[in-house]
Structure formats: structure tokens, C-alpha cells
Amino acid sequence: MTESIWRKTWQGTGVKLGFVWIGLLVFMGVFAPFLANSMPLLMSKNGEISAPVLTYLTAEDVLVLVLFALASVLAWLPLGTGKRVLLFLAGTLLTVFVTQAWVKPPAVNLYDDFRSTAYTAVDWRMMPPVPYAPTDYLRDYAEHGLEAPLEASERFHLMGTEENGADVFSRMIHASRIALSIGLIATSISMVIGVMLGGLMGYFSGVVDMIGMRLVEIFEAIPTLFLLLTFVAFFGRSLYMMMIIIGVTSWSGYARYIRAEFLKLRKQEYVQAAVASGLPLSSILFRHMLPNGVAPLLVAASFGVASAILAEATLSFLGLGLIDAPSWGQMLDQAVKSSTFNWWMAAFPGGAIFFTVFAYNLIGEAFRDAIDPKLSRNAGVGS
Amino acid sequence: MSQPLLAVNNLRTYLNSSGRVVKAVEDVSFSIAKGETFCLVGESGSGKSITGLSVMQLLPQDIASHPAGEILFNGQNMLTLPEAALRGIRGSQIAMIFQEPMTSLNPVFSIGEQITEALQLHNPTMSDAEAVERAMLALEQVQMPNARARFSDFPHQLSGGQRQRVMIAMALACEPELLIADEPTTALDVTVQAEILRLLRQLQDATGMSTLFITHDFGVVAQMAQHVGVMQQGRLVEVGSTAQVLRAPRHAYTQQLLAAVPENLARHRTGRSDFSPTISSINHVEDVGLKSDLLLSIRHLNVWFPIKKGLFRQTVDHVRAVDDVSLDIPKGQIVALVGESGCGKTTLGRAVLQLEKPTSGSIQLHGQELTGLSARALRPLRPKMQIAFQDPQSSLNPRLLIETTLTEPLKAHGIGANDEERLERAANILADMQLPREALWRYPHEFSGGQRQRIGLARALVLNPDFIVCDEITSALDVSVQAEILQLLLKIRAEHDLTLLFITHNIGVVEYLSDQTVVMYKGKIVERGATSDVCGHPQDAYTQKLLSAVPRLLKI
């Protein structure tokens, strides 16, 4: 059944474009430090080969790279879904601790140095495709930072520079990481909460269901954006805080879906047979019910990711996002606050937000169509 | 006789689904005279419904094609008529009724509106008042109780039998010459089925229309048809008069089908002497009432479902699904629980296994009280009592390998030293069910309905229970598959020393399989006793009505 849903989902053209776009963002997000950075990837000086980019990798960079490798390996290994999820979570925790403890990049990062003779007078060197870090304000180049795309002949800025002089394309690449991670992590948090509560509500029904549904209604009444504004005002700006708040406030939809599925599945004969065989509750819930009721969640999750990305972009646009790390919403905010209108500062991040949300919506739509039996293409003719 | 009303000559219907051509109907020829009833009988997938839909030209144009053959209705070839002419014939000259009374009526219109709409569609000149009057008459004609008052009722307010009456009224309102009835009574209870069949015969006598009756039930064939055609895999293997086909079938497939009808199985079985000791042992147990031989004892069991209404959802009344039932099931017996849909037999079966919480009363297995036990306390008792279900589609978890489905309960109860031993045990049970060991490594959707029912039974058996509730396990199966499952059940009963509570609505199966029969009606037990007594000499009025409604082959 899952295979057929994936197959049907993959059929449309729109959804393929959506997946390609998301795939591109994932690639850029994961390998951002190697794609856009001011330091050489590899260089040879006096016969000594070094990789400055590795020295300057932050704990987060390493975490993202390790998790990407872990996910690829797990997807390739022949394991059950449950085992994969567990291994991935364990790997994530382990990597978080290891990177926090061991990865210590230099505290001060003077990008101008990379353009000094220490790094240029070498035998050979290999630079990233975009040779500017996102927070490299190119102070050594010009007083006035703002440059339209391809304006300066001596330097190559595909998407121009922003007011402080940083390369817009580089910022775009690094910002994709924030957009993706906030979407995925916030949605994962809300899915875990939603599946737990919704599953219990659906399986036990009765009083548990009644209390659960009231809780759902309370959370549905909370306006996420204003809660986020309040929290930012009180506790300062943090990406992780945003993820958690978006996650904790948007689980109610998932809970409703899972509850409805479980109410239906509870009466299915194979679930009754599992109860009659005396199987433990965890097996009944997670083995016999959840895999059969998870399909509608795929739809909700795709839309959920899109809305989480939008929430972050909105906050950053309001000037309440992260301070130094680039994000698409923050770049838009810069464009608006600028004294003159600079189209390249608005068009590129705005377009990226638009296409990302659009891609997730396309994928969500495709999932919904694949799951909906009424849209099934084979008209059932039985005898 | 002169020209037949309908003549189907060498009809072929091919269905084209995503590049694959299914030859649904292959070279089928038959004819129906005026006023005659012709039955098409066959198992599921034999192409009988497709034949009916082909006659109506109701198959989707983009999927169905007719490479050969003709369908002559009053001399006109339905296959070549333009769509406009077909619309004139459909409904007014050929009408159709379907199996599912739940879905064949539009839920948002009242039944009166639906009949008048059909009338005015085919007689555009008819005035509203006249159409309403005709619709009322049609409802009265199908013996709808209180027809005039029911005119503005909506489909959900009617029972299944009443809905089927409305469907018939709608089909007959335009006085068609040919009625195509596609399994019209399959979804109905046997007593309702008897009424609908009687009604159809009366209406046919009164109007002189012909009927193409599609069914899988030879008992219904015996009651309805003058001529019968047997279909197998798209081909018509035998055509003849009803008496000839049912009494002296010539084709091997017809013989095989008829032999598999439970009624004939039963005759076959009671003819053998090696089963007679079982029959006598019942009487022995009943007479002496040995407590040691009692496996399950139910005392004053009530399962009530509250009906909640009003602002504060107070309980205003109860649906008494099981109402003060007391029942003893002796060890080693097959006890059949018979009754119509909604009589509480399934609820009783589930309550015995504590899948449904009883309102009051006591259930004792081996003298151990089951009611009021917590889920934890019940767990060690679960392996002793198992259940097998009706629907082969939903009785197995579609996401799990058969191996997981069979070994997981063993693991949960700590049976078997290691995975290999459990696997061996599962394979052995599958072998008992006449399934190959490779079946362990497949998913449920790779099996046919009959095979899935066997796997369902294997899952029940794998914990080595003393007692299995079989909830309509053969109801969704074709008659030949049903016969295999029933024979298998008798075999494993002997091998595993099992006690069965066999819930069914099929009297033929009861007569074949069971040692004792319990008849339920509206939540209460109305009659119980040895199967031969209950089925041979019913005492209760309801049992008598139920048994007389069963369509039997022998009546011809």
C-alpha cells in the first residue's frame, strides 16, 4: 500500500518539480560551507596541503553533514522503518553531544585574511564555487557595499550584494539550511506529539478522547505567531526556540487525523485479532495500527512544513528573526528597510520562499490525490 | 415460442485496464423468452455481472469493448444502437436492480421523489400529480408496509429489505419488459430474501415481464428460474432448464459447484457412519450434564449499548444487543450460533472473548471467571480462546508479513524457545491449513480470499487454543472455497481437540458442520439443541420461519 502511494504520488509533473526543488535545497543546505565560503577548500603552500574550510567548520555544519550521511546510509540499509527512525534519533543525539564537545572552530573569523597573502600566495588552491561567506562583508573592497548583480567587473556577484556588502547568493545558499531545518524539525516535533495524543485518543476513546479533544481545541485557539512574538520579546532570538514553539503549537491537526484513523482502525478485524491474541498495547498501537493509519499524515506534514517555513520567514521579516545568520525572511526585511529599492535583494529570497512553499504544497497535493480512493484512476468494475 | 425478448449471441466483453486486457465474457450465448426467468449463476469473477451490465450497455465506454457478438433486444442490437436510443430503452424497457441496497438509492432525496423522477424521465408528458399517484401505486405494488406514509421517507429511514423494495418499485414503475436483477437478495437476511423473491415472482406473474436473474446461490436459482446458465471464467459452461441443470448437471464444473453446496455436503456427511458417534455424544453430555466436560459457561449475559441524547448526553435507553443469554458449550463440540443480521450473535461472540465489555452476567472458561478481569489479567488467558473473522480483506494486517502475523503472538506469550522454533511452529500450522511454507514470506494482498481465511484460521490456531469463535468465516467466500474451509475445519477440530462457536446465518453450513445449534433472535436465545433436532423439528415460531425461508435445492 505504501509503495503504491509513493508510485501514485510520483506520477504528476508538478510533484516531480517539487521534489527536484526540495532536493536542490537539501543539497545546498547540507553542503553550504563547501559551496559558498571565503576560505579555500584545498590549498598547497610550500608543498604542504591543507583544507582551511575544515578548520572553520562549526559544530552545526558538522552535525548537518553527519546526519545527512547517516540518513543516506540508513535509507540504503535493508532495515524496517521503526529501526531506521530509532537509529537516526540515536545517531542525532550522539552527534549533537560529540560535535558540541569536540568541534571548536576559531572564535574570531576575519574573512579579510583569506584574501591576504597568507592564503593567496600559494602553489595552488581550490576555492568554493561562490568564494564569499554569507557574513563576509567584503570590508576590504568598497566603502559602499551595495552592488547590483554582475555590476562590478572585477568581482563576480551572481545575485549582487546587500547593503553591508555580503554576497546575496552566498546568503541564499546558507539560508536554505534554516528554511529546511525549521520546517522539518518543527513538523517532526508536532507530528510526534500529535501521533502520541491522537493515537491514545483514538484507541481508548471515551473519557481519554474527550479530554484530548478539549486539549486539541485549546491549542487550536492559540495564535502561533503572537505566541512566537511574545516569546522572542521575553527570551531573545533563537532558532531552536522557534522550532519548538511552532512544533508545540501545531500538533492539533495531526492529532485529529490520527485519532480519526485510529477510531476506524480499532474496529478492523486484524486489530481485534491482535487484541484477542493478547499482544502488548505498544505492539497493537505501533505495529498494527499506526502503519495503517499514517497515510493522511503525509499530506498534513507536507503542508505543515510549508507553514512552518512561512512562520519563520514572517518573524524574520518583522525583524524578530536571527541576528547574524542569514534567512530568507530577514533578507526580505533588509530589502524593505533599505533606503532605495534594490530589486535583487527582494526578488531572490522572495522567490525562494515562494518556490519552497509551492513545492511542499505540490507534494502535499500529490499525496492527497494518491491517498484519496475517489480520485483513483482505475474505475472499479467487478462482477 | 416465437422470437425471444432477449437473445445474446456469442457475446465477448473485454475490459481494458491500464494496458491489460481482461477477457471478462467469452463467447456467451443465451436467450430469454417473454415472461421467463433466466438465471446466470457462477462464482465471483465468473463474468455474470459483466454480462448483465453488457446487456444494459452500462459498462464504461473507455474500458469495455465488445470484439464480437450481438445482444438482440426485441430484434434491436444493443451493441450498435446510438447512445440516445439506448437511453430510451434503459429504465423504460430494461430495468436493473443491484445488490447493495445501501448505496443504490440517493441518500439526499426521499424515496417518493426518486420514483417520480424515474417516471417523469421516461414519460415527459406525465403531470406531477399523476407521477406521484403512480409512484404511490408502485410502492403499494411492492408491498411496502404503510406505503403512502412512507412516500417522503429518506433511504436511511428504511431497512435493507425495504430499500430493496423501493429499488424494485423504481425499476418496475415504468413497466419494463426485461428486469435485470444483479444479486438483489445477497445482502439481505434469509427471511427478507424469501419475501423479496416471492414479491418478484408475484410481480412477474402480474406484469408478464422477463427477468435476467444473476446470483451465486443455487437455492435461489431453484426457486426463481425456468432456465439457468452456469458461468465459469467468462464462459457459459452449461445452459438448460433448471430441473435438468440442478438434478443432472452434465458439465464437470456444475457438478463440482453443486457438490460444494452445504446442503449437499451435509447429505454426504451424514451418510457416512464415522461421524455418528459425535452426534450421540451430544445427547450424552446434555442428558448427564457433566460439569467436567464443560468448556465455557455463560450465565445471564447482557451486552447493552447506551443510547445517548440531549445536551448532557444522558443515557436515555439501551440497545440490548445481547439480552440475558445463558449458554453452555461442552468441550469438543461445534456449536452453531444462528440468527439474522443485528440479532446480537457477533456481539455475543466478541463478548465471550472480552473484546466487547459485557454489561452484566458471567462468562467462565474452564471455571475461570472472565468478566471484570483487567487487560493484564486476561493476557495469560488469551491463548486459550481465539477468534477468526468474516472479512478476508480486513482480517489480516496488510503491512505485516504472514510470518510476523503468526509468530508475534507466540513471542508475546513466550511460547517457543527462539525465533527458529516459533517459525517452525508457524510453518506447521500453515501446513495444517494446506498452505506452503513460502506463504510465510508473503504479504496478505498476495493471497486469494479463501487463502486469507485459512491464514486467519492459522493465526487463531497458532497459540494452540481450546476454543475458537468463528465469526461468519465463510460468508464472504464462494461456495466451492467455503466447502474447502468447512472440510478443513472438521479436520483440524479432530486433530487439535477444538471447541468451536460457529457464528453464521447460513443454515446449510449449520447442518453440515455443527453438533449443536443455538438460534438467536433480537438478543435472546429462542431455541437450542442438537442440530438434527433444531433443523429437523424446530419448536420455536421464529426458528420455523427462518428454516422455511431458506432457499433449498430440494424444493424443485
Condensed summary:
The complex is a heterodimer of chains A (383) and B (556). With 383 residues, chain A is mainly α.
Written overview of the protein:
Chain A has helices spanning 2-9, 13-30, 32-35, 52-55, 59-76, 81-102, 117-120, 168-204, 206-220, 224-235, 239-249, 252-265, 269-276, 281-293, 295-317, 328-337, 343-371; strands at 42-45, 48-50, 124-126. Chain A is mostly helical and 383 residues long. A three-stranded antiparallel β-sheet of chain A has the order 2-1-3, with no helix packed on it. The longest helix of chain A has 37 residues, at 168-204. Chain B has three domains: 1-93 and 177-257, Rossmann fold (3-Layer(aba) Sandwich); 103-175, no CATH class; 276-292 and 333-342 and 370-555, Rossmann fold (3-Layer(aba) Sandwich), CATH 3.40.50.300. In chain B, helix 3 (111-122) crosses helix 4, helix 10 packs across helix 18 and helix 16 packs across helix 17. Chain B has 556 residues and is α/β, with parallel strands linked by helices. Chain B is globular, with a radius of gyration of 26 Å. Chain B has 21 helices and 21 strands. Classes of the chains: A mainly alpha (383), B alpha/beta (556).
- Class by SSE composition of chain A: mainly alpha
Continuous helix count of chain B: 21
Low-pLDDT segments of chain A: 376-383
Instruction: Tell how many strands the DSSP assignment of chain B holds.
Output: 21
Helical proportion of chain A, percent range: 55-70%
Number of helices of chain A: 17
Strand order of the largest sheet of chain B: 7-8-9-3-10-11
Separation of termini of chain A?
Answer: 23 Å
Strand percent estimate of chain B = 25-35%
In CATH, the topology of the largest domain in chain B is named: Rossmann fold
Q: In sequence order, what are the helices and strands of chain A, one letter per element?
A: HHHEEHHHHEHHHHHHHHHH
| CATH superfamily grouping of the domain at 2-30 and 175-375 in chain A | MetI-like
In the residues of chain B, how many domains can be counted? 3
Assess the beta-strand content of chain A as a share of residues.
Answer: under 5%
Q: Main sheet of chain A?
A: 3 strands, antiparallel
Gyration radius of chain A, rounded: 24 Å
Averaged pLDDT of chain B: 86
The CATH superfamily of the largest domain in chain B appears as: P-loop containing nucleotide triphosphate hydrolases
